[in-house]
């Protein structure tokens, strides 16, 4: 029997879904396109027979769905995170078309990266802080009068593009990324780095948490754009630790482990 999962390590993550029918519709949309790894962040109503019914022959995807409490947990092991959004945001983020999104996902998959595709709440999409944990955003172009697709439909469009990109074969443009000499840092490592960076910026008096402006958002966008690898994150953390030590004369010069 052929495996239903053509993309091991590529997860569809639904955040705080209200309607279990949409979970079922998303599962079906995924399985039709060869994806089976479904993660539900804090769903309102799950497990649910409505979800299983709506999924038709993708009940296995619904039943195997992993339920987690937070987006951080869902994406912790992902080296590529792409967030879907129906709207323009105040701070622009690197934006992909659905086709480009499909190509990015397949290139990352072929480079053994774990990938998270984030979909938001039916009522109000993804929060800004969730979107800021993504390296890229993807918007499905629509007619001007109504830009918000049903959740299951949005999952369908994106998963369709992932499969199309795989069927189209390897684009040369992804070679450098596939052959990178170090694994890209995962989301958990990058989040630790942002926390360490923020603490250090406060320590040296560059960042005032009472008046943050958009400093951390802009720095997140900067590093997301680069896509740091594991070694680079270690170097940056070591650099920050050295600055931390300078700011604390008299303290131990032993390297400090930051979690
Ligand atoms: N009212 C919400 C839209 C929620 S639609 C808002 O204004 O943000 C539920 C989810 O479906 C979205 O969070 C997103 O994951 C996906 N979605 C809907 N329309 C989309 C579009 N045009 N492009 C990309 N994703 C879309």
Mean of residue pLDDT? 93
Q: Helix count, per DSSP?
A: 11
Physical arrangement of strands within the biggest beta sheet: 3-2-1-6-4-7-5
Order of helices and strands: EHEHHEHEEHEHEHHHHH
Number of strands: 7
Query: Which residues form runs of ≥5 with pLDDT under 50?
Result: none
Small ligands present = S-adenosyl-L-homocysteine
Q: SS-based structural class?
A: alpha/beta
Q: CATH fold name of the largest domain, please?
A: Alpha/beta knot
C-alpha-based Rg, rounded: 20 Å
Shape by Cα distribution: globular
Distance between the termini: 44 Å
**Fraction of residues in H or I helices:** 40-55%
CATH class of the largest domain: Alpha Beta
Number of individual domains: 2
**How much strand content do the residues show?**
5-15%
Largest sheet: 7 strands, parallel
Please name the CATH architecture of the largest domain: 3-Layer(aba) Sandwich
CATH superfamily of the largest domain: SPOUT methyltransferase, trefoil knot domain
